[in-house]
Amino acid sequence: MRVNVNAQRCIGAGQCVLIAPEVFDQSDEGTVIVLVEDLDDSAQAVIREAVVACPSRSISLAES
């Protein structure tokens, strides 16, 4: 599974970082940064939670 983000769409709410700090961070401007793009199966549930929690819908998942 691969995490995709649209940093231009991101509003910097930081929900993804709160939910999955091992996968997401924020840039100096406050927009989302993906630390780990390719995820193993054990991380899927928490990443799906981050996708749902994102108010700007800037995060998506794709099958690898």
Describe what you observe in this structure.
- By secondary structure, this protein is α+β, with helices and mostly antiparallel strands.
- Helix content is 23%, strand content 22%.
- It contains 2 helices and 4 strands.
- The chain has helices spanning 15-19, 44-53, and strands spanning 2-5, 24-26, 32-34, 59-62.
- It has a two-stranded antiparallel ribbon.
- The longest helix has 10 residues, at 44-53.
- The protein starts with a strand and ends with a strand.
- 19% of the residues are buried.
- The model has no long low-confidence stretch (mean pLDDT 92).
- As a whole number of angstroms, the C-alpha radius of gyration is 10 Å
Cα shape: globular
**Topology pattern, helix = H, strand = E:** EHEEHE
Q: What is the typical, i.e. mean, pLDDT?
A: 92
Low-confidence stretches: none
The percent range for strand residues is 15-25%
Number of DSSP strand runs: 4
In which order are the strands of the major sheet placed? 1-4
Spatial separation of the terminal alpha carbons: 5 Å
Number of helices: 2
Keyphrases for this structure?
single chain; 64 residues; alpha+beta; two-stranded antiparallel ribbon; 4 strands; globular
In short:
With 64 residues, the chain is an alpha+beta fold. The chain has two helices and four strands; from the N terminus they run βαββαβ.
Write the layout of secondary structure elements.
Layout: E1 2-5, H1 15-19, E2 24-26, E3 32-34, H2 44-53, E4 59-62
Antiparallel strand pairs: 1-4, 2-3
